[in-house]
Amino acid sequence: MRLSRRVAAVAVAFGTMFATVACSSSEEPGEGSKKVEVFTWWADGGEKAGLDGLVGVFKTDCAGFEFLNGAVAGGAGSNAKQVLASRLQQNDPPDTFQAHAGAELSDYINDDQLEDLSAQYTEWGLTNAFPKGLIDNLTVDGKIYSVPANIHRANVLWSNKTVLAKAGITKDATTLDGFFADLDKLKASGVAAPLALGKDWTQQMLFEALLISKLGPEKFNGLWNGTTSWTGADITDAITTYKRLLTYTNKDRDTFDWTDAEKLLMDGKAAYQLMGDWEAADLDAKGFKDYGWSVFPGNGNTFQWLADSFVLPKGAKNADGTKCWLKTVGSATGQAAFNQKKGSIPARTDVGTDGFPAYQQAAMADWKTATQVPSCPHGSACAQTWQGAVGSAQGKFSSDGDVAALQKALASAAAEFGPKK
Ligand code: BGC
């Protein structure tokens, strides 16, 4: 697959490696083009399967337009977000891009990079189609700037059933103490690193799941809205426990994307992985059937949510085509086709459970009754500047294990990038 000159230059500028950019120079969209360039980081496995589902509906509902795949591979947008930032800076936006609901979306809104979609919400009947809390996360100053495609859950512990059975583990742990006891059983059964882990943002996810167990949902929410201090003894305790948890993980974690860690689980070299529920779709897409799931031990009925949404950037070359894409994303048919393959659940409240795999059916039921908390690495809790600062602090901790230094860095990041008192 060829890279366009523009994207290749950006990749070199950032020194990043990314595997897939499906937009080749002969396919460049231009004025009057029928092509709609859709920019995501859904390049492979379950993520690509979800995107394909949505594209299938777009092809039918928007037959006058053509889908152009602008995916840049790399979990959680680790490469895509850099490429996108550079393109926006050069006034070269894709026709639409994936953005997380919440603080991350507000970054683009505050930088005046997005068109207001309030009129489309009225025209397409979307205003009452989504839960009010989600609409609030997409709205700034009474205007709404994106169409949500889904709700993902971040705090899920995936497991390899055969590896658990060999270690004599027959029940999911519901407390941290129980989880450590199971990890010890796995080590005793010969699994040297039972908890598979990847780099920066995946470490943020594991630490957040632990924080939810230690603090409970209300205090966890307070970390992001400024009512819980990062300097307290409870945070020191959480970091100390996290350090212990790292001793059960693979040492090469800092070089791994989430799919590399997932492979350890599939190969039976690890028993567990904490990961968002895109993992369900990815394991399904890869034909791995021997997996189980539970909420992270100690999280109770807390649902750590995030949502992918799509926007109309200012200066998009094909605004009409983009509007048709956004209409598809927001439609009940589009949400069913996408979410059945993506591991997430529809953001719309009127899509039935028919056709959804067992995992999503369970998630749809949980979503209705659970206590909701947001995620920082997936944008619902914090802006990209804050995400970056936490990610590098955790990356450093992964090699030096300095509890006081991590706590200090987390407190400084919150003071610099968090809500101002
Ligand atoms: C996105 C998901 C995606 C995951 C892993 C998250 O930030 O919201 O759609 O599957 O990253 O790449």
Task: State Rg.
Answer: 21 Å
Shape: globular
Mean pLDDT: 93
Summarize the biggest pleated sheet.
Answer: 5 strands, mixed
Classification by helices and strands: alpha/beta
Low-confidence stretches: 1-27
Distance between the termini: 50 Å
Helix coverage percent of residues? 40-55%
Q: Name the ligand types.
A: beta-D-glucopyranose
Q: Quote the beta fraction.
A: 5-15%
CATH topology of the largest domain: D-Maltodextrin-Binding Protein, domain 2
Question: How many H/I helices?
Answer: 17
Neighbour order of strands in the largest sheet: 2-1-3-13-6
The CATH C-level name of the largest domain is Alpha Beta
How many domain units?
2
Q: What would CATH call the homologous superfamily of the largest domain?
A: Periplasmic binding protein-like II
Secondary structure tally: strands: 14
Going by CATH, the architecture of the largest domain would be 3-Layer(aba) Sandwich
Q: How is this fold's topology laid out?
A:
Blueprint: H1 5-14, E1 35-39, H2 45-61, E2 66-69, H3 80-89, E3 96-100, H4 103-110, H5 118-123, H6 132-138, E4 139-140, E5 143-144, E6 146-148, E7 152-153, E8 156-160, H7 161-166, H8 176-188, E9 195-196, H9 200-225, H10 233-246, H11 258-266, E10 272-275, H12 278-285, E11 291-295, E12 302-306, E13 308-311, H13 319-330, H14 332-342, H15 358-369, E14 371-373, H16 384-400, H17 403-417
Parallel strand pairs: 1-2, 1-3, 9-10, 12-14
Antiparallel strand pairs: 3-13, 4-5, 6-13, 7-12, 8-10, 8-11
Helix pairs in contact: 1-3, 2-12, 2-13, 2-14, 9-10, 9-16, 10-17, 16-17
Structural summary, described in words:
This protein has 421 residues and is of the alpha/beta class. The chain has 2 domains: 32-151 and 306-358, D-Maltodextrin-Binding Protein, domain 2, CATH 3.40.190.10; 153-304 and 376-417, Periplasmic binding protein-like II (D-Maltodextrin-Binding Protein, domain 2, 3-Layer(aba) Sandwich), CATH 3.40.190.10. It has helices spanning 5-14, 45-61, 80-89, 103-110, 118-123, 132-138, 161-166, 176-188, 200-225, 233-246, 258-266, 278-285, 319-330, 332-342, 358-369, 384-400, 403-417; strands spanning 35-39, 66-69, 96-100, 139-140, 143-144, 146-148, 152-153, 156-160, 195-196, 272-275, 291-295, 302-306, 308-311, 371-373. The strands form 4 sheets. Strands 2-1-3-13-6 form a 5-stranded mixed β-sheet, with helices on both faces. It is globular, with a radius of gyration of 21 Å. Beta-D-glucopyranose (BGC) binds next to loops.
